[in-house]
Amino acid sequence: MPDRRKKWAPHRFTYGDRRFVWKDKLAEKEILYEVKSESPMLRSKTGKVEDQTFERPIAWIQYRYGSKFGIVGIAGGLDQVFQEFILASALSKRVVGKSEEI
Length: 102
Hints:
The chain contains one helix and six strands. The protein has one helix at residues 80-101, and strands spanning 12-15, 18-26, 29-40, 49-53, 59-64, 69-74.
């Protein structure tokens, strides 16, 4: 679910009553964080949300070769179902982005 009524940036999702957001720290890397708190951005006409996240990343994607390939890393100690959910979340953003180019 995007926080704006446009495209897929930043990509947010809920799992087990906890909120998560993918953030682009660099052009070639995206990092998944758990959200501490969210609030609507003042005067935003598109529905943008401001958030505070925990410092420790849950997962990250390192893109290679102009974002054609990516390596997904996931922090240890997460249950397998959540790991699969993270992978699905990461891949859905890429698939939706590619389908818009066609």
